TrEMBL record:
Domain HTH marR-type: 12-70
GO molecular function: DNA binding; DNA-binding transcription factor activity
Protein name according to UniProt: HTH-type transcriptional regulator
Family label: Belongs to the GbsR family.
Keywords: DNA-binding, Transcription, Transcription regulation
Source organism (scientific name): Azorhizobium oxalatiphilum
Domain of life the protein comes from: Bacteria
Record keyword Transcription regulation present: yes
Pfam families named in the record: MarR_2
Amino acid sequence: MLHFGEMGSRWGMNRTLGQIYALLYASPEPLCAEDITAALDVSRSNVSMSLRELQGWNLVLLKHRPGDRRDFFTTPEDVWQIFRTLVEERKRREVDPTLAVLDDLISRTAAGEGDRHAQARMREMYGLIGQLTTWYDDVRKLDNPRLAALLGLGAKVTRFLDAATRLGPRRRASKGETGQ
């Protein structure tokens, strides 16, 4: 839990938020705020604020127990769902706003404002982030086994790309294309 707290602070979250998430993830049963407060020795208000933030990230689930009016919290069981949620939330909170700002800056500087070099750099960055976003949109549609297989390929993908690059000109030549 301490490590998750440290990592959370490196990912732009507070330490307690990371520790609460680790506690909930490792717990075999959903926990209520009082359980979390006691386990981590943090204030009840800090736990409440952190739980709301984790809910905002769609990383914790609210559970109810029959006969108990308290709210209990847990994490999704499927690690792939957690991974997908984290990536989607980071994209929504960080990548999408960056694309919007770059788009705005490019459209404003296209009217003659600003430096051509800066404008070219912004267009280049916008293109890269746009390409990554398109790739992400394609990859997120994969089912878990295919996504795991894709991630398992690692550097082997470069061999495929190298082979495709070598075959590319031959294919075009065999079809009578000039390659231009």
